[in-house]
Design brief:
The chain is mostly helical. It contains nine helices and no strands. 72% of the residues lie in helices and 0% in strands.
């Protein structure tokens, strides 16, 4: 009987001491992981490299030309020469990678939003029609699923934007807003808002 009571006392001690310790450690680890900038540093470096290589500027130049073409957005991409269209793909590849890694929980939605929402919103607003054009053009060539993670990346980071801003600007609908974003990409090393 004494042995049984000893086991009960030990079980109660474990319940009241170890369980709170494990719970606190779990909460701390979750918070650390949510806001740990080291988990997204590799992606920030890749994004910065796009700027250093001039790829974001070249993509912005192509998109500005695209905005000057008349007609339905997706159809206007046919009027942009293929070599120029391909200049936007490094930016889309970056966004696709970011969406893929976000989906794989490599970093948190909060970090993706904090580091990249301005550019996710801007580039996706401008290039959504290109993605649709690209997928249709490549239909049957195993490219139909190209750039499939960008939508999720945008949606998840836009949810955070909705929570924080009084009147969040979630999408660039007006051509003037798109031009302003693209011109900022052409003229500045760091256009963060």
């Amino acid at each position: 009987m004494r042995y049984l009571w000893g086991c009960v006392v030990l079980a109660v001690a474990i319940l009241f001491v170890l369980v709170p310790m494990v719970w606190a450690k779990t909460i701390t680890e979750c918070k650390r992981r949510t806001f740990d900038p080291a988990s997204i540093a590799f992606l920030q470096a890749a994004f910065d490299q796009l700027e250093e290589d001039g790829k974001r500027k070249r993509a912005a130049e192509v998109c500005l030309k695209f905005l000057n073409i008349e007609g339905e957005e997706k159809a206007r991409w046919k009027q942009v020469p293929k070599p120029e269209r391909e200049e936007v793909e490094p930016v889309l590849d970056f966004l696709e990678d970011a969406g893929y890694y976000l989906n794989g929980d490599v970093f948190s939605d909060e970090l993706a939003h904090h580091n990249f929402f301005h550019w996710i919103r801007g580039w996706y607003s401008v290039l959504k029609s290109y993605i649709e054009f690209y997928q249709e053009e490549k239909d049957g060539e195993d490219e139909k699923t190209a750039y499939c993670w960008i939508e999720s990346l945008y949606q998840r980071t836009a949810e955070i934007e909705k929570e924080g801003a009084q009147k969040p600007k979630l999408w660039l609908t007006k051509p003037v807003d798109k031009r302003e974003f693209l011109e900022a990409e052409l003229s500045s090393d760091d256009t963060r808002e």
